[in-house]
Amino acid sequence: MLRDHSPDRAKREADKAFKPVKTQKPMNDYAKDQHSFNENRERLKTERLAREAKPGDRSE
Question: Could you report how far apart the first and last alpha carbons of the chain are, in Å?
């Protein structure tokens, strides 16, 4: 008998192939609001930094 085809190894390989998918808990309203706020803040920060880095008319 071949050792490579033992039932234990087959079970381990099957468990590896069919491992359960991690599911995330649905976000509550507070978490959704925080997520939206953080995304918007990061977007605005990126836009501001891009404007500041662009050479232009500055009256300094």
Answer: 85
| Alpha carbon distance 43, 35 (integer Å) | 12
Q: Where are the domains of the chain?
A: 5-53
pTM of the model: 0.47
Q: Residues 6 or more apart from 35 whose CB is under 8 A from it?
A: 27
pLDDT digits (tens, 9 = 90+) for 15-54: 888 887 777 777 799 999 999 999 999 999 999 999 999 8
Q: What are phi and psi of 56, to 5 degrees?
A: -165, -165
